Amino acid sequence: MAAGVATWMPFARAAAVGWLPLAQKTMPKPPVDKKSRSDEILFVNVSGLRFQTWKNTLDRYPDTLLGSSEKEFFYNEETQEYFFDRDPEMFRHILNFFRTGKLHYPRHECIQAFEEELAFYGIIPEIIGDCCMEEYRDRKKENQERLAEDTEAENAGDAPLPPDATLRERLWRAFENPHTSTMALVFYYVTGFFIAVSVIANVVETVPCRPIKGSIKDLPCGEKFSVAFSCLDTACVLIFSFEYLMRLYAAPSRCDFARSVMSVIDVVAILPFYIGLVMPENEEVSGAFVTLRVFRVFRIFKFSRHSQGLRILGCTLQACASELGFLLFSLTMAVIIFATVMFYAEKGTKGTTFSSIPASFWYTIVTMTTLGYGDMVPDSIAGKIFGSICSLSGVLVIALPVPVIVSNFARIYHQNQRADKMRAQQKVRQARIRMAKKGATNAFLQHKEDGGLQDGDGDSTPFCVKNRSAFEHQHHHLLHCLEKTTNHEFTDEVTYSEVCVTDSVGFRTSRSTSLSSQQGATTTCCSRRAKRRAFRLANSTVSVSRGSVQELDTLHVTKTPAGTQYPQSRSSLNARTEDLKLNCDDYTAAIISIPTPPANTPDESLPNSPAIPGILRNSRSSTFNTQDTVKISSL
Amino acid sequence: MWEILQDCWKSIPGEAGCENAKSVQSCHQGKDKIDDELEMTMVCHRPEGLEQLEAQTNFTKRELQILYRGFKNECPSGVVNEETFKHIYAQFFPHGDASTYAHYLFNAFDTTNNGSIKFEEFVMGLSTLLRGTMREKLEWTFHLYDINNDGYINREEMTEIVRAIYDMMGKYTYPALKGDVPKQHVDAFFQKMDKNKAGVVTLEEFIVACQEDEMMMRSMQLFENVM
């Protein structure tokens, strides 16, 4: 929890006195505060620079190195101070964080050095204050990209393939990185040549050639040398098809490859030829067939495999889509407005070219882009006035978004790969903060299920309560008091929804019912409930409540031999609803095969009830030691 | 200044008829807000001397020093307002909604009823709760429950308080909150406290009933060494 909250803890606990008249049960005992309340000044020596601070200041953040008992490792007995062999300049910022609760990022420091210091002192960088967060994120991004680019340049496919690479892998590599082998390079240039040939052929086809003997009309070369051109076209298409099929075969993920832009371009480039093959040679569809040939020009886009610049341009246009969209939208608006105005202004003129509003669109566009072909000219005075307004506003409307697009291009050119990395980091950051928040709210639930809230004497729980600060003790006690006041317990979402399902079966019997009736009534629903738990165990997800369920179930197995202990156990472990589950599930323990760690099953017969808490604790502590509960506290 | 002009410009009567009233209001409010902000930043309350506070409360000098250092660190201006208070309390009870209860608690601490808690009020409240006599604690609790300060706790006030407490528990509880649990709680409370069945609980009834309650007395004692 944040610093300030720790300061208010005594107040919140004192205010809990206000719940007492309402409480229907006795309050739990507060945790014993062994430490004296007096504050002392600590000396912290960081590579010779001596800092002094109150102990309370450091205790505000018990999950950091300085706030926990971890600093005792650095205590120097002779000089009575804590000595850290770290950067003293950086330590100033760390200590300021403890003092003010806000972590600032020093702009002149290297980002990696700063992060290492934070990691050493156990502070997560996500709590950098808003004032410095922007700077920190930018620098970190920059740094990471630079590093990533360096490593990418090193490894970018220049590393030799492992000798046992399959043909597929080798082929894919040859396609993606042509400079790795001579064959790939040859293939690269050959395809490039044929793309060029195909495009040039398409262009030259339409150039008028000298007419064949005996006719006057000029023929386009395509018709004169139709055989040659069609042979060329067929050859190119065959080569492109072959190339596409080879890429498809070699691609590690065929679905992804088929969906990529380049592959779509490839397909579109060769499709017209094949469609032309299957289409019958009649007059009606030949018109459509001619249109299809237009698509052959898409072969020019195949050059983008060969040119990095083209790819970047494509990315830029994609990234600038919003600006382009805005330009288009505003232009459309202006065009419609002015076309309407011009049409109605010129309506009266005889023999006007402004025959309809769509016809006026052409005039408006030509005028606004300052082309001014002159094929449509207004005659009336009103038309001329509005025409001049149109051309003036055209300059503005078009000139405004264009510099934005240009500057975007410059920016995106430098950042064209960074968009993805930025998104990835954002997700990670959000995930970590979410995890930290969940950690704090679940801390109390975890504490409960660890058996930290028993009303037994406080000294006999040394194992379970390791590394818990006084603040956490007090906070948990406070929450426990609230539970006692309202006679309800905190749970988490999972258990809550589960209980709601089993509620109708009448599982939750009041504590006053006798054990026998409990046995009879609840065997079926308990078994269902326990089976559900066993099922969840099999899935073994990592979450706090499920972790505790696991512990409970391992305990159930150990309790089977103790058949006669029920009455005592119920009375001693008062006000713990885990009891109900415990008693019930013994019957089903035989049915479920839970993988119990051998350390947990005590071999001797269970002693009588007061020690059952002890067994519970022991088995829990051993499972505890295997678990790693690292609580990140930041709220 | 520019914002005020802008707001007033917007409030000039025009086509938008009904928007006028709102914008005029916000124009005035804007002005008040700026004044308020100036006030808040200039207010810097200093508490009375250490000796005086030591005399008035049951804390030692060292304890007062520690308390004040923490308080001053959190609220450099020297006062806590209700928003901050609610925010702090919400951090203690992240499961549910602690704002209603924090509101009542704030009113209980704010003995001068000026909307902010100074350090003296804070420390005196703490002193009563932690180091006071049983009667003082019970009086404080009565004062907390008596929302309108008329000397009686009626059913509505009690229901408010109990609902606020249950709100702090949040949605996910075991057993689940079914039916009108707060109301049942209030009924149980009144049955215990309201001896003459008058429908309200007076201070004396409250104190007598609490002192008869063994469980509560034991719990009270547990809270003695909270600080």
Structure, explained:
The complex is a heterodimer of chains A (635) and B (227). Chain A is mostly helical and 635 residues long. Chain A has helices spanning 3-15, 55-59, 88-100, 111-120, 130-155, 167-176, 182-204, 221-224, 226-250, 254-259, 261-278, 283-294, 308-319, 321-345, 357-368, 381-399, 401-415, 418-449, 470-486, 493-503, 515-539, 544-559, 566-572, 578-589, 612-626; strands at residues 41-46, 49-54, 75-76, 81-84, 208-209, 219-220, 489-490. In chain A, the strands form 2 sheets. Chain A has a 4-stranded mixed beta sheet. In chain A, strands 5-6 form a two-stranded antiparallel sheet. In chain A, helix 1 (3-15) packs parallel to helix 19, helix 6 (167-176) crosses helix 9 (226-250) and helix 14 packs antiparallel against helix 17 (401-415). Chain A is elongated, with a radius of gyration of 39 Å. Chain B contains 12 helices and 5 strands. Chain B has helices at residues 2-10, 17-42, 50-56, 61-74, 82-92, 99-109, 119-131, 134-145, 155-169, 181-193, 203-212, 214-222, and strands at residues 79-81, 116-118, 152-154, 173-174, 200-202. In chain B, the strands form 2 sheets. Chain B has a two-stranded antiparallel ribbon with strand order 1-2. A two-stranded antiparallel ribbon of chain B has the order 3-5. The longest helix of chain B has 26 residues, at 17-42. The N and C termini of chain B lie far apart (49 Å). Mean pLDDT of chain B is 78; it is low at 13-30. At the A-B interface, helix 1, helix 18, helix 19, strand 7 and helix 20 of A face helix 4, helix 5, helix 7, helix 8 and helix 9 of B. Strand 7 of chain A pairs antiparallel with strand 4 (173-174) of chain B, so a sheet runs across the interface. Chain B: One of its GO terms (biological process) is regulation of potassium ion transmembrane transport. Chain B: Keywords: Calcium, Cell membrane, Ion channel, Ion transport, Membrane, Metal-binding, Potassium, Potassium channel, Potassium transport, Repeat, Transport, Voltage-gated channel. Chain B: Belongs to the recoverin family. Chain B: It is found in: Cell membrane. Chain B: Residues 97-132, 133-168, 181-216 form the EF-hand domain.
